[in-house]
Hints:
This protein is of the alpha+beta class. It has helices spanning about 15-30, 70-75, 80-95, 115-130, 195-205, 220-225, 230-240, 255, 280-290, 290-300, 315-325; strands at about 55-65, 100-110, 135-145, 155-165, 180-185, 245-250, 265-270, 305-310, 330-335, 340-345. It is built from eleven helices and ten strands.
Amino acid sequence: MALKKPIGYQDAGVSIDEADRAVASIRTLARKTFTSGVLTDIGSFGGGFLLKGYREPVLISSADGVGTKLKLAFLTGRHSTIGEDLVNHCVNDIAVQGAVPLFFLDYFGVGKLDAKVAAQVVSGIARGCRANGCALIGGETAEMPGFYAPGEYDLAGFIVGAVERSKMLTGAKIRSGDVLIGLPSTGLHTNGYSLARKLLFEVAGHAPSSQVEGLQTTIGDELLKLHRSYLKPLRALDDAGILKGAAHITGGGITDNTPRILPKGLGVRIDLGSWPVLPIFEVLRKIGRIPEDDWRRTFNLGIGMIFVVSPRKLAEAGKILDKLREPWYPIGAVIPARRERVVYE
C-alpha cells in the first residue's frame, strides 16, 4: 500500500527540534558545573575527566534514582528540585566511603519531550552538582513515545568520586563502645514515597495542597523537601581523622543501613528518644497504623546520616559540627552483635 504522504520521525512522536532546544539548555546549565578536570564538552560521545592529585586513587561509583518521589513532581508541576535530590542522594552514597565527588551523568527518559520541563529538571541537577563541587559532564535525554504516561518521565543519576586507597572509609576500625552521631534529615528524602502516597492520597484522601494537623506546610511542600547532602560535615570529620564510619540512611532506615558498615560480630544500640522524630513520620504512622518495625525500616524517621566516632573523640566531633552549624545527636553506640544487629532501647 502506497502512503499518500511521507512519514518522518516527528510523525512517530519524536521531535528532533524539541530535543535540540533541550540540549541547548542542558549544555548551558552543565557548563556552569565544570571543574578543572573536565576535558570534554556536552555533546561529546563520552565525557572525559582528568584525575589529578592522587597517588593511589580508588574510584567510587554509584547509580540511583529518586523513586516515586517523581510522582510528586508530576502532581504539583514542580520539577526544579527533583534533580538536586538525585545528586545529593548519589553524593551521600559515595561520600560515606570517603570519596570526593568528581563528575555526574544523568538519564532523563520521557514519552514526549518538553524542553522547558527538561531544563527545570536539569537545573536542579546542575545546582546540586555546583553545591557539591561535582561536574555534570554528560548524560542521556531519551524521547520514547508510548513508553511513559503523558506528562511523566524517569530520572536516574550516575556519579564517580575518588579517594586515596589508604583513606577509604570501610568501617574496619569500628569497635564496640564507639558512639553513633545522627544528623537530621529534612523529611522523607527519597525513600518511602510509595507508602506515603498511598496513605496520604488514597487512604486519607488528601491532595498535595492539603493542610494536615501536625505539619507546618502543605503535603506537597512537605513531600518535596530536599534530600540534603551531608558531604561538608562528613568531609570535616574525615579530614580531622576522627571518622570511623558513616551510613547514609535511605531505604531500609536505620535498621538496614547501619549494619552495612559494621565489622563482623558487632551491632548497634539505638537510643529511642535521642533525636526528634519529624512530624511527617508521626502523621504517616497514625494514618496507616504502621507496625513499629515496618515504620523503622521504611522511613529515616528524621536521621539522614550516621557517623561513628570513638567516645574520646565525641567532644571534638561535636565542636566541628557546631562550627558548621550542623545539628547533631548522640543516638546510640556500637555493641557486640545480638540476634538482631540493630537494637532499639
